[in-house]
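Apologies for my clumsy wording, but can you show me some protein sequence, whichever is easiest, together with the matching structure tokens, please?
=====
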Amino acid sequence: MDMCKQKAYFVKHHLFYVLYSHKERLNINELRRCLKNHTFASLAGDKHNLSKGLKEIYPQAAPMLKDAVFVDFLGLPQKHSEKKLQRGILENMKEFVLEIGKDFLFVDKEYPLQVGNSTFKVDLLFFHRGLQCLVAIELKTTKFKPEYMGQLEFYLEAIDRDVRHSNENPSIGILLCQEADRSVVEYAMNRSLSPTMIAEYQRQLIPKEVLQHSLEEFTQFLKPVK
């Protein structure tokens, strides 16, 4: 990337934060957090983690859904259970919503889905105001596995049949994992017709040293080219 392209990137980068701050009505502390967790990269990436179905049904959704979610405010140890992760999110719901986006409205935890004689439970159920649809979030503390998608797609089918209102759009499913291999995600998403996505949660913010280096690079790029 030459100097002109680099400067163009940083202009785009900062313009994004101006527009995003206005849209989300961020205060100064919330904006600082977005800068620390690289919200721009998370929302403006190539979106390999979106299913074919999600891209077709919601072509406008990509900049509304994050690839990475920082949950440093939960204070999770490296090894933790899904129950501990879920409990931490519920106890810090305000911070979690600020992280995933203010258009997310929390509906319920362990939302029951009755199918036949069996009852299934969605870890977290939200409603997205911008997309006007229900969003089911399944939590996984392990590395992403393709078989997880079958469970999520089953939940979406049940939600759309028995829970979704007639004036609402098709439901979206988000699989929130601690880790995901890019190639495995691309293969899993390529033929999926259900509106789903894979996102990773990060226990800690990006180290200060990395942020300082990025700031120094940005300052250098702003200098006039001789």
The chain has two domains: 1-37+206-226, 47-204.
